[in-house]
Amino acid sequence: MIHEGLIGTGLTAYFGRGDGILYVNWYKVYVPAVLLIGLLYVPFLLRLPRRYSLRLLLAGCLFLGSAIGVEMLESYAVSHRLGNVGLLRLFEETGEMLGVVLATHAFLLYLCDSVARFSLQFREQSETASTLGMHATGPSTSLRRERPG
User: Is the distance from CB of 71 to CB of 30 less than 8 angstroms?
Assistant: First the structure.
């Protein structure tokens, strides 16, 4: 909401309101900034295996398509007084959060496949532990970290 509140209010005071899909002014600042930052991430995406870079690209497109595209539809509806934009806001926020979830999923897949694996193993408790005064019954567990091989 920073883009709509703080920055949007300042831009509206300076430029006035737009019309149609440009009714909200924050696009004038953020779209060029997002394009520039996106270009800076191209080398990062090219270095990743395709499986992960495509997932991140999909997540980014979904997030930005919702944040900018659906909000432009909202701007059009508001500027032409087409009624309640609650449903459009629902689509916008849902799309943004789905984009975040997809990006998080891609990062977690990358971590699982390339950094480390964890396994949980069960074994019976040894008699040594019970002679030392440990009275646990049943199986004990241990967590072991494995490097990918």
Answer: no
In terms of pTM, does the model score above 0.90?
no
Q: Which own/partner contact pairs does 40-45 have at CB distance under 8 Å and 24+ positions apart? A: none
3-state secondary structure of 111: helix
Task: Please count the other Cβ atoms lying within 10 Å of the Cβ belonging to residue 129.
Answer: 12
Rounded CA separation 136/1 (Å):
53
Angle subtended at Cα 88 by Cα 84 and Cα 104, rounded to the nearest 5 degrees: 150
Which residues in 86-110 are b (16+ Cβ under 10 Å) and which e?
eebeeebeebbeebeebbeebeeeb
Cα separation values, 52 from 34, 36, 39, 42, 84, Å: 21, 21, 17, 13, 38
For the chain, give the number of residues.
Answer: 149
Report the Cα 99 to chain-centroid distance in Å. Answer: 5
Q: pLDDT digits over 32-72, tens only?
A: 999 999 999 999 999 999 999 999 999 999 999 998 899 88
- Summarize pLDDT for 92-145 with one digit per residue, the tens: 999 999 999 999 999 999 988 887 666 667 777 666 555 555 544 444 455 455
| Cβ contact 124:139 at 8 Å | yes
